[in-house]
């Protein structure tokens, strides 16, 4: 761990201090640091470091989400200079995706929120590998922590998708979600509920689209519906 990283950890720790003056000084220092190159990447590394205390990691993930919103895309309202350099963006994405299997659910959720915040700006055009990676995670029954993280990301993504994105993702996504929902012996209730919420989000958008694209949405959904109808019936019984 280099000196800059240790300084950031000390600052994050101080920002949780009950002493008002210590906390204020730390928060001001972090605000100044956010204007320096490498700050976002340093936050990502702290959030992903499983040897650090839970509170510091969670705070780093929350600050990273705020940093992304302010500095990731200069075309967005509320953007503040400097913009995150391209090479740092790539590194931050890689660190966050590798951390979606974190055993702490709150850390995992915070990281998922950071991923979805980036996705709002970059997916699908500048981050085409995101959804295939998430699908690979939810297909791995041996790593349920990763399934939780991926589903959390997909739930956030699906609530923000437009009529151009949904048709591209549904054919690959729905069979994966069906496997989870129909396998209570493998996946717990929370994972199955999260899967159903994603199905609901996507289906709602397709319902809106059907007013204009009835033939297309019918052709998309019809091959997928039969097993889902049987599963819904089974759950309701």
From TrEMBL:
Record-level GO BP terms: protein import into nucleus
SUPFAM superfamilies the record matches: ARM repeat
Keyword set includes Nucleus: yes
Localization annotation: Nucleus
Pfam families: IBN_N (PF03810)
GO cellular component terms given for this protein: cytosol; nuclear envelope
A GO term for molecular function: small GTPase binding
PANTHER family: IMPORTIN-7, 8, 11, IMPORTIN-9
The protein's name in its UniProt record: Importin N-terminal domain-containing protein
Classification of source organism: Eukaryota, Viridiplantae, Streptophyta, Embryophyta, Tracheophyta
């Amino acid at each position: 761990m280099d000196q800059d990283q240790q300084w950031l950890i000390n600052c994050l720790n101080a920002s949780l201090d009950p002493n008002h003056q210590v906390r204020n000084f730390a928060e001001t220092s972090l605000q100044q640091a956010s204007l320096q190159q490498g700050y976002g990447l340093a936050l990502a590394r702290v959030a992903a470091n499983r040897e650090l205390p839970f509170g510091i990691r969670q705070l780093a993930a929350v600050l990273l989400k705020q940093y992304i919103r302010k500095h990731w895309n200069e075309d967005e309202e509320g953007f503040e200079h400097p913009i995150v350099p391209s090479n740092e963006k790539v590194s931050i994405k890689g660190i966050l995706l590798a951390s979606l299997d974190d055993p702490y659910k709150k850390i995992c959720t915070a990281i998922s929120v950071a991923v979805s915040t980036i996705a709002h700006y970059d997916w699908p055009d500048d981050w085409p590998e995101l959804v295939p990676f998430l699908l690979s995670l939810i297909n791995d029954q041996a790593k349920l922590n990763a399934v939780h993280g991926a589903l959390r990301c997909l739930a956030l993504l699906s609530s923000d998708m437009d009529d151009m994105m949904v048709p591209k993702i549904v054919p690959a996504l729905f069979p994966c979600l069906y496997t989870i929902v129909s396998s209570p012996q493998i996946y717990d209730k929370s994972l199955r509920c999260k899967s159903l919420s994603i199905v609901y989000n996507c289906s709602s958008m397709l319902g809106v689209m059907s007013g204009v694209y009835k033939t297309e949405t019918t052709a998309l959904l019809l091959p997928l519906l039969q097993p889902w109808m049987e599963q819904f019936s089974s759950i309701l019984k």
